[in-house]
Amino acid sequence: MEVLGSRDILNLDRALGLYRVIDEDGNPVAGEPSLPDKLLLDMYTYMIRARILDGWLLKLQRMGRVALHAPNKGQEASAVGATLALKREDWLFPSYRELGALLVRGMTEEEILDRALTTIDDPLKGSDFAIYGHRKYNIVPAPVPVANQIPHAVGAALAAKIMGDKIVTMTFFGDGSTSRGDFHAGLNFAGVFKAPVVFVNQNNQWAISVPLKRQTAAPTIAVKGIAYGVPGIRVDGNDVIAVYTVAREAVERARSGEGPTLIEAVTYRLGPHTTADDPTRYRGEEEVKEWERREPLRRMRRYLISRGLLTEEEDKALWSEWEKRIEETVVKVLEKPPLPPEVILEDVYEEPPWNLKEQMKELRESIRLLKELGIELE
Ligand SMILES: Cc1ncc(C[n+]2csc(CCOP(=O)(O)OP(=O)(O)O)c2C)c(N)n1
Ligand SMILES: [Mg+2]
User: Which one from 105, 134, 253, 273 is the annotated catalytic residue?
Assistant: First the structure.
């Protein structure tokens, strides 16, 4: 009897290794990658945009304008590289730390800021149970409970397969999320039914204060896929070209009916878990410094310059162009009015039932009375 039937699925080398295209200093590891120049420059630009926007969200939280932010710094390559492998009609099921992925899907800085500041244009109308998402770009809102998005992505992929739609779903989740049942149920289901889904694990070494070695005794996260019949590929998550290359292969595999892939993108969260966290309480400075040296933007910049696709001057211009554009967007969004209070009763049912209609009437009456009394609503 043949055991599992596929040598590819059992490819332990890929699940235990670390695929790289450029090294930590931006030098090609094994020959020049054969990707179009424009794509390489786009990868870098998306990462710059994600880095600048991330910095603003942090500042806006400190200014009391954003409730909470999960910093992305250091993880831009995984989010940007993986999502660039998708097509417009595919669906993304992100977590809360993938600004770059939202940008690649087409969401603008303005839309992301509208969400974070819950302005009148917030695409999720103030919902507290979701983080980022946008129907227009096939981005399903990231749920607050970690890993819930994994079975969602599997279910959507299976539905597409049953309906004959040639779409692929991609989901992001952290290392800590692999300890939840949703990860295991999701992978098992996807493996059995060959769901067209790409699992992207952002292994950033920490789940708040829990280090990877307390999360699992397995040598890698990627190896976990093998037991479910899902190929696992471990990739340098700070090498945007490497992430894109393996994601493109996984997306093609899914689209051609061969089933799911688990990608482990090895990366590092350089900032705090969220704006409510102090990482100096649980990890040393040395470790952070070590990973700062490996951060994805510096190495891609070095690679592009050494390949002659970018000059030092062009690089500076690119940064200042986006710094200016994003600052202008922040100013614009800060001036927008907040969501009206009525949204708390909207979007629950397509047609509101009698009790919600009654509550809406009462709410409007209260708002009117408060206004009459000259009391401002925040
Ligand atoms: C089911 C559930 N348990 C606990 C939490 C609280 N929580 C939020 S983020 C987080 C850590 C997640 O770590 P990881 O999956 O590695 O993602 P990272 O934050 O590192 O990107 C925890 C425990 C939660 N949101 N949901
Ligand atoms: Mg983590």
Answer: 273
